[in-house]
Design a protein that fits this description.
Layout (H helix, E strand, L loop, with lengths): L4 E4 L9 H14 L6 H5 L6 H9 L8 H19 L11 H10 L3 E5 L5 H8 L7 E3 L12 H10 L6 E5 L2 H9 L3 E5 L10 E3 L5 H10 L14
Parallel strand pairs: 1-2, 1-4, 2-3, 4-5, 5-6
Helix pairs in contact: 1-4, 3-4
């Protein structure tokens, strides 16, 4: 079988919750009197919650126990989820629904590979929860990107090998993870500049045409093969 699976990072690719992350981290940093701004926030993209917290705490000189750090991470997540509860389809990337619909109509298996433990809530709030065969998220893995674990898990759930899947990412850590796992890496936004990126999208709506070209290089895959959407 040739290329037949597409695994998506969620935040920054299919929807945008960066601002909610920023507001939640900013509230925590302000409470701790740490100099958090958009530039620091950019360093957190594609990074796990605990690793993000370590980056923020490194802005100050005080040391904290593991228990205190876990309480801070939980505080941040409560704030973030409170914002997510109020979000809706307006947070979707332009054309996201049309792109996903086109891919499934053409027989591509689709999955989510996100480090976020909030992926199910985001999918539910944005109305995307019915568009994917599988979801692999931060609650199911022990290592975050650039480790390829989340993409490998998504591929296993799809019952595909990494060389049968493309990964769409907006962060360099995600491109590194995709490449490390043997996936075909597709960069969108900042990830388009990442070293080792196999293909580049200027906008999400270009993905179906790129997938069509990928399929042309994978003649063993037939779009008429059965999928969960048929």
């Amino acid at each position: 079988m040739g290329m037949c699976g597409i695994i998506f990072d969620l935040d920054g690719v299919l929807c945008y919750t960066d601002h909610y992350h920023y507001l939640a981290w900013k509230a925590l940093a302000d409470r701790l009197s740490l100099p958090f701004d958009e530039q620091v926030n950019n360093r957190l993209r594609g990074v796990s919650r605990m690793e993000s917290l370590e980056i923020i705490l490194s802005l100050g000189s005080k040391t904290y126990s593991q228990e205190e750090k876990e309480q801070m991470a939980a505080e941040k997540n409560r704030l973030y989820r409170s914002y997510l509860e109020r979000m809706g389809p307006e947070a979707l990337a332009p054309g996201a629904v049309d792109v996903l619909r086109t891919l499934r109509e053409n027989g591509w298996k689709t999955g989510i590979g996100s480090s976020s433990k909030n992926a199910p809530l985001i999918l539910e709030r944005t109305g995307l929860d019915g568009f994917f065969d599988v979801v692999a998220d931060g609650s199911q893995i022990t290592k975050s990107k650039p480790d390829p674990e989340v993409f490998q898990l998504a591929a296993r759930k799809l019952r595909l090998s990494p060389d049968e899947c493309a990964v769409v990412e907006d962060a360099s850590a995600g491109i590194l993870a995709a490449n490390a796992g043997g996936f075909f890496s597709i960069g969108l936004g900042d990830a388009a500049q990442a070293t080792g990126c196999r293909a580049v999208l200027n906008a999400l709506y270009e993905l179906p045409e790129l997938c069509r070209r990928l399929y042309s290089r994978a003649p063993k895959f037939k779009p008429s093969d059965p999928t969960p959407f048929s």
